[in-house]
Each structure stands twice: as C-alpha cells, then as structure tokens.
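Fold it.
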Amino acid sequence: WRTHILSRSYVIFASALDMEYQDVPLDYTKPRSQEHEVRIEGLSSGESYQYRLQSLADFALSPSSCGGNFTTSPSRAGGVSSRFWVIGDSGHPTSAQTAVIDSYLNYAGDQPADAVLVLGDMAYDTGTQEEMDSHYFDPYRKLMSFIPFWTTIGNHETYNHLETYPYYDLLTLPAEGEAGGLRSGTEAYYAFDCGQIHFICLESMESVHKGWMEAMLDWLERDLASLVNSEVKWLVAFFHHPPYSKYGLAAVLEHQQY
C-alpha cells in the first residue's frame, strides 16, 4: 500500500472468530517510505480476518482506505468449491469498465469470488504509475480490500520503456512460493493454490527476447512435478497472449467455419 507521505506504516489484524488484534512488528532498520508491503504468517486456511493499516505519521493514510476483511484460501485437503472472476485488457478508465465492475458486483451478490485473475493490459496506454493508479487500483480499490488479485503482465505494462516497469514496483506477487507451489524467484511468473486448484502464472511478454524462457520452463516442469500424488485436482495456467486466436474481425469469421 502507499501512504501520502514518507512514514513507517504497519498492519494490525484479527481472526473474525475472536477479534483479538495483533500487529506485524515494524522493522525500524528500514527507512521511511511511501510504498509498503508486509507478510502476515501463521494464518489458518479458510478463515476470515479483519485488518487495518496503521501509520506512525499523522495524515499518512486516507480513512476510507485503512482497512477491510479477507478470507484465506482453503487448504488442498478442503475439497470446497471456489469462484473466480477473470478479466483481461481491462485498463481503459471508461464507462464500460465501470459497467463491467457493476455487473460483476450484481452477479456475485453475497458470494464474491475467491480470487480475481487479471490477464494483463490493466493500464493503458503505457503502464505508468499514474495509469496503474487511475486505470487499475482506483476502479478496483473496493474489491481489492477483500479479494486477492493475481496478475500477469501485458504488453501495455511494458510500453513505458522504464528500466523497471511500474507493474513490478507497485505489485507484490509470490516469487518465493509463499502462496503454494515452488519458488520461482521472480514476480514475472509464479504459482499459487486455492484449495485443490493450482494456478500457474506464466510470462508471455519478454521471456523469449530477454533470454529467460528456459529458466521459466525449467521452473514450470519442477513445479508440475511437485504436484504428483498431491491433493490438487485442477491445474490452471494463465498468461497474457491467447494461444488459439489472432487479432481482428477476420479471426472471428474464420473461427466460425469450424
């Protein structure tokens, strides 16, 4: 999360079962920052929690964005059903984007998705920090307070030509295998579990011309091998480029022939 000013910010959280709040200790060796992330460990599977963001500096946080609730993913042994919302090329801040969000909220009702998969191009035109804020974080802010968003990079997030893309600076993804699966060591591709479903995010943008396709495929093979004899029943891979289509009306007409 981001604070308005340089500050030391932290999280307090509590299980909905007992509402006894505890905090994640601050690391005073780190300098004050506007960008913050924290890892909360020891949470139980399939359990609801409440949380609040705190800061040692006054006016560092907006009251409207200081807290929420979430439910952790069920364990692999749980055998419960799950719901997911999948969106892609959603990064135009238009009335259509708002209509899609409203339609989802009306459809989901009191049964929200367990997670949202974002298939890239969430910040037209060039994936700058300002566009990530206005095209991605702001429209989905309410949902992000209680639903995890798992993302893969799209071409528009790479058009800013910066040395490090804001996509990676602004998002925290499980490069260390902390959400299930093997450690990838990079936020470009990773894995996570939701119950008996194993999700694999692959990077289809730059893995070839930047020379780390082989490393990604090696990680993928090892991750899949680790699932042998596990409780996993479903495998879902996602990445930006559609493997069975091409752009334009001609593609639509062509596929209507089959």
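The two ends are 47 Å apart (CA to CA).
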